[in-house]
Amino acid sequence: MMRILATLLFVFSSAAMAGGWTNTVPVEHVEIIRGQGFEIKGAFGNPSNCSGSDSIFVSTNHPQYDQLLSVALTAFTADKKLKIYSHKCIDYGWHGGTYNELTADGAMYIKK
Question: What share of the chain is helix, strand, coil (3-state, %, to 5)?
Fold first, then answer.
């Protein structure tokens, strides 16, 4: 019984620690990734503890893909800052390694 309780506590505490907010920073560039989504580069940090940092990936499957791409491009062209919540890491195969992903459970803020 204690072993099961310890395992459950570990699983739930690990899930609670996964993800977090990026730094609030200007966008350095936006890259469209071969029909998979887009990547936003900047000094974001590494909120989901992925192998790659300072990058956020948004999949084409995200329900607000078009809106998020518009916000990212607006931030880039207007020299505004973004703050993004990432819940997990993803390996999208193009750059190698894992990168922070903005999922449907995350959020993106554009700031002055």
Answer: 25, 30, 40
Range of the domain at 31: 2-111
> 22: how many CB neighbours lie within 10 A of its CB?
27
Q: How far apart are CA 57 and CA 51, in angstroms?
A: 13
Question: How many domains, in total, are found in the chain?
Answer: 1
Rg (CA), the chain: 15
Do 43 and 54 contact (CB within 8 A), yes or no? yes
Distance separating alpha carbons of residues 41 and 30, to the nearest angstrom: 6
Q: What is the CATH number of the domain that holds 87?
A: 2.40.50.50
pTM for the model stands at: 0.82
The one-letter code for the residue type at 82 is L
What was the pLDDT predicted at 95?
A: 80
The residues that bridge with 107 in the sheet, in sequence order, are 85
Is the pLDDT at 3 greater than 90? The verdict is no
As a whole number of angstroms, the distance between CA 84 and CA 20 comes to 8
